Amino acid sequence: MKHYKAIIFDIDGTLLNTVDQNMYPLIRIIKEELDEDWTYEQVVPFTANPGMRTLQILGIKDIDTVYARWVRYVNEYGPGAKPYDGIPELLDYAEERGMKMGIVSSKRQKQYGIDMGRHGYDKRMAAAVLFEDTPVHKPDPTPLFECLRRLGVEASEALYMGDARSDMVAARAAGMDFAYASWGSFFPMERDEPDYYLDHPMDLVKYLD
User: Are 4 and 157 in contact (CB under 8 A)?
Assistant: First the structure.
């Protein structure tokens, strides 16, 4: 077991289930902008990208305007983002142990306030590095380095938890251990690839001293 001073989390697919909330509105955007009918399975791989990058890949014109409409559709969709089972207990556990908690996500600040604020999770994070905070994004390690700086911990003292291979690549490049959140992932990994393969959020507890 290892002692960490901090845990840094991705959001989508790790802390919060936002997949349907983001992907069904994206299908709507694709129909409106490209007049193409995409399936849920076709759009799911875009969950690994920042939203603006997704629109660039799709070749959509006037990205700023279309992105704002996508965000509006997202926030009109159903009940919104929900924490995965076990996440509230894991956050409580980390707080009880005096561990610092942070966020590294490609989510924009306004959406972060909506999704995380709905559950009060934004108040529980000592640092949040979001899309606007760095010029480059995962899998580049720069956002993780910035979060470590804000938390005041070394890479060897922190763990990054995420659901995508880009999260693991970023963690490795930053010199951090990586915990794979399999519950929200559409990007399967072999069990020996990450430092910790988690079937449930509270599985992490058995690796912490």
Answer: yes
